[in-house]
Design goal:
Length: 238
């Protein structure tokens, strides 16, 4: 994945590369009834926040993070060094082999497409295996302009109902879902704001442009924090 060095410098410093809390993964494990010596993949794991959560919650499981960005893999490896059941590797999340009892993917299935990603992952699931993913959604077809402005760089974003239809189109059954609004986003943007401030002094023109872009995103979110959401979906093949 070819990303500007300045972008990588900023985002590789973050605990996670998108909205979410450790409790999201715990909720998914509890709702799916998962425990014991499982094989789990964190697809598009970023700097490894959810790999760490999953490894601590499932001490008998094998957690494998797969990430396409070398800088994120490099940041993830030391944070997982004291967790013998967790590893992260450079790889294509669209070409997983498995078999996995769970494929977890926080905010990353967007890069494949929901239907396309689920179809690609189906063959990587063990019998009875499940997928848990989060995806940006519109809460209604008629969202205020502030929400439209926020999602403008990602025009493929659709409603919750549309995402659930895509899951069905991929041949999966929805086990449960919940909206991620407010706190998961605030935690992410608070972390991003701290790193922006740390990098701002002496920033090059290219770095300043990246920092300005991140600040614009935060400002757009603050215009409608109660309307900007991810949908966390738990699904199994039918």
């Amino acid at each position: 994945m070819d990303l500007p060095a300045e972008f990588l410098t900023l985002y590789s410093r973050l605990d996670r590369q998108g909205p979410g809390l450790s409790g999201d993964a715990i909720w998914a494990l509890e709702r799916l009834g998962l425990s014991g010596p499982l094989a789990v993949c964190d697809a598009g794991c970023g700097t490894g926040a959810d790999c760490e959560t999953l490894a601590r919650a499932l001490p008998r499981a094998r957690i494998e993070g797969v990430e396409a960005v070398p800088a994120f893999v490099a940041a993830a490896q030391p944070r997982l060094a004291d967790l013998p059941n967790a590893t992260v590797r450079l790889g294509d999340m669209g070409a997983l082999e498995g078999p996995y009892d769970l494929i977890w993917s926080a905010g990353a299935i967007y890069f494949l497409g929901v239907t396309e990603g689920l179809r690609a992952w189906r063959e990587a699931l063990a019998p009875g295996g499940a997928v848990a993913f989060s995806q940006g959604v519109l809460l209604s077809e008629d969202e205020p302009q502030a929400v439209r402005d926020f999602w403008a760089p990602e025009p493929e974003i659709i409603t919750c109902e549309g995402v659930l239809d895509q899951v069905s189109d991929a041949g999966f059954e929805v086990i449960d879902s919940k909206l991620l609004i407010g706190a998961p986003w605030a935690a992410y943007y608070d972390s991003l704001s701290v790193q922006i401030a740390a990098l701002r002094p002496g920033a090059s023109a290219a770095m300043a442009e990246v920092l300005d872009g991140a600040e614009r995103e935060i400002a757009l979110w603050r215009q409608a924090p109660e309307r900007i959401a991810y949908l966390l979906v738990l699904a199994r093949p039918r």
